[in-house]
Amino acid sequence: MAPFSLIILISIVLSFLDDGSASQNPYLRHVHRPCKSMVVYFHDIRYNGNNDQNATSRIVGEPEGANKTSLVGVGLTHFGDLIAFDDPLTEDNNLRSPPAGRAQGFYLYDGRNQPASWHGFSMIFNSTKYKGTLTLAGLNVILAKTRDISVVGGTGDFFMHRGIATFSTDAVEDETYFRLRIQIKLYECWKLMNH
Ligand SMILES: *[C@@H]1O[C@H](CO)[C@@H](O)[C@H](O)[C@H]1NC(C)=O
Ligand SMILES: *[C@@H]1O[C@H](CO)[C@@H](O)[C@H](O)[C@H]1NC(C)=O
Ligand SMILES: *[C@@H]1O[C@H](CO)[C@@H](O)[C@H](O)[C@H]1NC(C)=O
């Protein structure tokens, strides 16, 4: 068989084996297992007018008629409140454990009929385990048992990483404190080569 027809034969066979997706796009991969995973606890103490010494978040925007010391409205929706935060992250659920990192950014109560908040923030790690940042963005449907938020990128030890952060509410104490358990699973992990 001439080499040319052999090539044609091979490409015909390959086209039958093709599942129609992965081989056309070399960047499209089906991943089942994370390349990195970890759990962190996110502690938020909201300023209420008299806890300045330990508050880690503040209302910075509110709807007409509301104020910056109380979340607006009855119930849990608080529609229109915007909160800025610089919250500690710990490896276990103890607020007083040495922080593994910080979470800095904002959340906006954006559910009119059901409690929901939109989070845009970065986690900053500076421990012996990890140095670098992860940036998260997505909707937190507060009363759902678990909520998946996108991890849209990273720097340092998390160079160009992407994945999913699953939030679950771990504690809600009085009006000012809540704690989230965040399970982070990264499905794309790149390594920066310096040379
Ligand atoms: C923060 O400080 C206030 C006022 O001292 C206190 O009542 C509250 O329990 C503290 N919050 C937490 C989560 O430790
Ligand atoms: C803020 O709003 C809350 C709820 O309406 C109210 O109880 C509180 O007194 C207000 N605080 C200030 C400082 O106006
Ligand atoms: C990280 O920690 C080291 C050692 O504690 C400190 O020197 C450095 O300034 C920290 N970097 C950041 C970005 O916080």
Automatic annotation (TrEMBL):
Protein family (similarity comment): Belongs to the plant dirigent protein family.
Signal peptide region: 1-22
Pfam name, any one: Dirigent
Annotated Gene Ontology cellular component terms: apoplast
Record's subcellular location: Secreted, Extracellular space, Apoplast
Record keywords: Apoplast, Secreted, Signal
Keyword Endoplasmic reticulum: no
Purpose of the protein: Dirigent proteins impart stereoselectivity on the phenoxy radical-coupling reaction, yielding optically active lignans from two molecules of coniferyl alcohol in the biosynthesis of lignans, flavonolignans, and alkaloids and thus plays a central role in plant secondary metabolism.
Subunit structure: Homodimer.
Segments passing through the bilayer: none
The protein's name in its UniProt record: Dirigent protein
InterPro entries reported in the protein's UniProt record: Allene_oxi_cyc_Dirigent, Dirigent
GO annotation terms (biological process): phenylpropanoid biosynthetic process
